[in-house]
Task: structure prediction
Amino acid sequence: MNIDPTALFKLGYGLYVITSNDGIKDNGLIVNTVSQVTVNPDRISVAINKSNYSHDVILKSGIMNVNCLTIDTPFSVFERFGFQSGRDTDKFDGLAFSRSENGLAIPEISNNSFISLKTDEYYDLGSHGMFICSITESKTLSDKESLTYAYYHSNIKPKPEQKKKKGFVCRICGYVYEGDELPDDFICPWCKHGASDFEPIE
Ligand code: FE
Result:
C-alpha cells in the first residue's frame, strides 16, 4: 500500500482544552479532535483517547466544555492539561476559572471561546471514543487568533536539545526516547501519543 504517514501531518487541526467533572473535581485535557459536523441543529464531534481519564468521565456525565485556545497559550497550559493524568492529579490546582451554566469549569488560560456540549451519541472507534454532541451554551471571550496544531509545533513546543544522542523525539510534546530503535508499541510517558508520533533525532 502506498501510505506515506507524513501526509497525515498535513491535515489542519486546532487545539482545545476539554473540561469535565467526575463529581469530585474539575478535570481537563488537550485534544485536537473537535469539529462541527452538522448545522440545524449545530452538532460537534469530539474524539477522545480511551486511555484518558476524561474519556470515562464524559461517558458517564454526558457533558463537557470545549475551550478554544489562542496563539498566546503558554507551554505551561500543555504541561498542565496534557502531560499528566486527572486520575492522580488536580489539573486545576492554583488555576483561576469561572463556571458555565452546566456547572463545568472555564479555565482562565488564553481561551477565546467556550462551547458547552451535551453528548447525544457515542461511537467506540477502537483507540478513541467519539462523542457527537449538541450545544447547550457558547460564548466568545476574545478576538485573539485561534491556535492551530502547526502553530503549536513551530512556536510553542520547546525545541529538543541538540545533543549528540541517538534517539527519537515526540512530535507532540518534545519527550526524548534514547536508544537506537523505538519499539512499535511505545507510548509517550508525557502526552500518551504512540510511536507514530516520534521522529528520529537528526
Ligand atoms: Fe509526547
